[in-house]
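Deliverable D2.4 — example input (structure tokens):
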């Protein structure tokens, strides 16, 4: 496994851990929520490095709202901010 693949696996594990910690038991499909968060981070990183965190947060908020319309705004915001931080961390790691 090369460094890039290893880093991607770490991001997936990090996002899944964050989602598991934020979701209560039997509230939302944990896999679906993690997938939306990972898609948001991937979307943000796919374009220029400018505002990667903001893009990830906005994308996560939109995707979570569409995928889980009954999710409360506080939980959606917390998960979106977590996606923002993961995207920023990934962008910084990529610069090393």
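Example output (designed residues):
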């Amino acid at each position: 496994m090369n460094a890039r693949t290893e880093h991607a696996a770490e991001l997936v594990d990090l996002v899944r851990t964050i989602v598991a910690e934020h979701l209560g038991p039997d509230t939302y499909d944990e896999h679906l929520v993690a997938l939306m968060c990972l898609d948001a981070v991937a979307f943000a990183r796919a374009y220029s490095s400018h505002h990667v965190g903001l893009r990830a947060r906005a994308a996560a908020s939109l995707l979570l709202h569409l995928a889980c319309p009954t999710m409360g705004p506080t939980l959606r915001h917390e998960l979106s901010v977590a996606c923002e931080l993961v995207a920023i961390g990934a962008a910084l790691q990529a610069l090393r």
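The chain has a mean pLDDT of 86.
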